[in-house]
Amino acid sequence: MDTLNADGTWDRLGSIALLLHQAATQVWSDADRAAADSPLHDLGLGVYLAHSQASALLPEDYELPDVEVDELEEPTPLQLLTEAEELTRPLPLHRPDLHGSQLVVDLCDLIREARGLGY
Fold first, then answer.
1. Which residue, among 40, 22, 49, 24, has the nearest Cα to 105 in the 3D structure?
2. Domain boundaries, the chain
């Protein structure tokens, strides 16, 4: 039995990956409308890399669920990053087979950066 799956770890990581994908999409959309030297480009890249980190922690056969977003109440990138970080808190990051501690550090850095940019 896969104990990481039994405790919901994969589903939690899947949700984190989805949140980061949504945040990256929003930040890149904002960056497309900003100047070429806007720090939004750096933030967008950082969020995209965090999304890749979270996705890489998932088993190869894990399928992310489709999530529909209500665009009238679309959360900000900062809210999405914060929610993703909160989902990492119960993860068993101390386990040698789950190398996710760098993801947590990166999420905290991205939250600080997003706040600094006014999200």
1. 49
2. 1-61+73-118
This model's pTM is above 0.70: yes
Q: Which of 3, 89, 18, 76 is nearest to 43 (CA)?
A: 76
φ, ψ of residue 62 in degrees (nearest 5): -75, 130
Q: Are 46 and 110 in contact (CB under 8 A)?
A: yes
Spatial distance between the Cα atoms of 3 and 17, rounded to a whole number of angstroms: 20
Is the pLDDT assigned to residue 1 strictly greater than 50? no
d(CA 24, CA 58): 19
Query: Residue 44 is encoded by which pair of tokens?
Result: 């967008």
Determine what percent of the chain falls in helix, strand and coil, rounding each to the nearest 5: 65, 0, 35
Longest dimension (CA), the chain: 51
